[in-house]
Amino acid sequence: MKITKTTSRLLGGAALAGLMLAGAAASAETIFLSTQLRPLEEAQAMRGDILKGVPDVNYVVEEPPQFPIRMTAESQTGRHTISLVGALHGELAPLAERDIFMPLNDLAAELAAAGMPQSVLDLGKLGTDDQEYIPWMQATYVMAAKKEALEYLPEGADINALTYEQLIAWGQAMKDATGAERIGFPAGPNGLMARFFEGYFYPSYTGGVVRSFRSADAVAGWEEFKELWSVVTPNSTNYAFMQEPLLADEVWVAWDHVARLKEALNVFPEDFVTFPAPAGPHGRGYMPVIAGLAIPQGAPDVDGATAIIRHLTQTDTQLLTAELVAFFPTMEVDLPEGGEDGVSLLASAVSATQSAPDALISLLPIGLGDKGGEFNKVYMDTFQRIVLNGEDIAATLAAEGDVLNALMQDTGAPCWAPDASSEGACPVE
Amino acid sequence: MQTKRLTPYLLILPATAFLAVLFLVPLVQTIWLAFSQGNAPSMANFQRMVSDLNFNTALRNTFLLTLFVVPVQIALSLAMGSLAMHIGKGRETILWIWTIPLGISDLAAGLVWLSILQNSGYLNSFLYGLGLIERQQAWLTYQTPIALFFGIAMAEIWRSTAIVMIVIVAGMNQVPKDFNEAAQVFGASRWTRFTKITLPLIRPALQSALILRTVLAFEVFAVVYTLGGRNFPVLMGEAYTWQNTNQNYGVAAAYAVLIMVISLVATFVYLKAIKVDPERLP
């Protein structure tokens, strides 16, 4: 008996060793490193469903702060392991500046013919002549509201063409009726509130982001924002993802990234409506978030990487991506509308935003390199000083404007839309 | 003879090498990172740190929290320790229950208290059930700084009193029983025995507990972060934000150096203030 047990163990061990050897022999796999779709469920959807059918691909995720360090290290040492990277426009841009990616012009021409809009493709050129990355998927920020909030909507207000004044009136009506502030923003440590100021508040009120930072329009905007904040729940400075307070019934109306609302909309799609962010005097600011695919120079498996890009930009894969992780296609694809699930809800808000007549695109900051965090900090500090600490608006904008100006000079980043373009560093006027 | 003399040094060599590689090297790197800018010596990171919006608040909050939490924990631990000394049967079980929070990570402890104190948490449900509040009351916002402070302090006290208690109970166990018995014979009250016999004799334990807890209190982070987010800045939280969110490693290192200096000063003060007879040192 004893002998049999030992033998079977030995056999098991031998089998395991054999498997491991086989694994090592088949390790000529394409490594796909991504800063996107990192949460466990999203990464699993990527490995199990979205990348299904692509042979020998190893999908590896990386935290955004470590991503440029790793890419630079591989480039400097010349020891390349990664064949394909997936990251946000703003994460790829500083690496492309250092010539870390190979040009993908042929692939871009192929995709343009297959139906990727040229305006979207051009984002991947980063202002150069070469295609530095292929736009992979896109997201944006929208608003979501519980249906019970709709009865407090100010008279005559169209939810798809809301103004900030109407949002304030709406919040006030809900506060009067329920005794609590019912609007919420993700202003906690892991929330994306800085993007609200950069992509929504500033463009809507001033028509710019950097140039108009301390303009008279900005002062008026902050005054109105303080009014808005009086009907925003004070718990907002703790929120990271708005889907949780929406599900907990703490908040009835929220603004956030589509991926951070998805959970609530998926669980109770019939309880929610989605709509574009409000408009200010200069239009309806909105910020598209583009994720792209790039192949590093010296990548060990360029052919494998190209095959994965082709797979991910196919219409079916793009629709599947939207369905599973709520990132929307970069290809010209019609999303199935009128569905009852969270993704169709989000898709309708995204298309209402994009097709709004007063829509004002604000791009993610470009050219700030590793100073992106400090750029966000300027907007969050301004918010903290003016709104939470009640400091004087003009004085705060003057002081923080100096910080912003120094940052722009330091990085030399030129203006991006909707600011008028600049020669050299974008100035704070 | 020669080998015999070398043996102790050879034995501590692996530990020393380990410390040098994994502790001293990062320490030196952090100090250099804090005191340099673009590979040249500079105080720019410290200037940036001191002039930041949240620096003074973080410094004040950290000290307030330490000055409140540590004395409460010492008092509680002395009370718990004295109680435990008087219990005969079941003493081990009670000590075991008291140390449960020790096995829980800071973050988990923060989450436990978050589930109690958040809007839809147990506290509000309880108060609502009793009819004391009409709607959910917010305890952890920037508009309720006092409730937030006590919430965080309570979570910290709950989480880390056990470690102080263990050290103090260990100290109390070493107090010879006959001292107390002799005092009892001469009619000393319970309080007199505690202040004149127990307290002086557990000084070394008290000193270790104070140093340990104070240093940890200056490094408080996860509990504050979970409960207060940005509403209650502390030094360690600012270091984390500068490193992770703002991605400025220099300023983050400056915060780390500041926390280290404060901890060293606190340790030095305790070593000087609480005199321990050399023969009672371990």
TrEMBL record, chain A:
Coiled coil: none annotated. Pfam families: SBP_bac_1. InterPro entries: SBP (IPR006059). Residues 1-28 form the signal peptide. Keywords: Signal. This is Family 1 extracellular solute-binding protein. It comes from Ketogulonicigenium robustum. The lineage of its organism: Bacteria, Pseudomonadati, Pseudomonadota, Alphaproteobacteria, Rhodobacterales.
Automatic annotation (TrEMBL), chain B:
The chain crosses the membrane at residues 60-83, 95-116, 146-170, 210-228, 248-271. Keywords: Membrane, Sugar transport, Transmembrane, Transmembrane helix, Transport. It is a multi-pass membrane protein. Residues 59-270 form the ABC transmembrane type-1 domain. GO terms for biological process: transmembrane transport. This is Multiple sugar transport system permease protein. Its main location: membrane. One of its GO terms (cellular component) is plasma membrane. CDD domains: TM_PBP2. The lineage of its organism: Bacteria, Pseudomonadati, Pseudomonadota, Alphaproteobacteria, Rhodobacterales. The keyword Transcription regulation does not apply. Coiled coil: none annotated. It is found in: Cell membrane. InterPro entries: MetI-like, MetI-like_sf, Sugar_ABC_transporter. It comes from Ketogulonicigenium robustum. Belongs to the binding-protein-dependent transport system permease family.
